User: What shape does this take?
Amino acid sequence: MRESSARRDTSRAERFLARERASALARIESLRRQLAAIGDDSTWTGADDEHDPEGATLAYERAQLQGLLADARRELDELDRAVSRWREGTYGVCERCGKDIAWQRLEALPAATTCIKCASSRH
Ligand SMILES: [Zn+2]
Assistant: This one.
């Protein structure tokens, strides 16, 4: 039996995208809470970095969290575009060759816009 594609099984694709968006949102929320817990830049002058090891650690931790937060926001953005494609009926369709993108690939990369073949022959 052939596996269904995201193009044909739109309700599965919808549930899948909703779940991915919810988890991206939850990650953003959690990162924002962690950032708030260590204080944001506005309360930190950075002047005592050298004399305050804890301050330097916090600054490092904050930079890490901000990086993760930026990643999570970018991912949410891509998922939003994936949802738009879903509305247009083109989610799960390779934008290069027009064939279905395998579920396996979408599960690893929910916002993928090309099939594995096109993605690996990009260069
Ligand atoms: Zn393709």
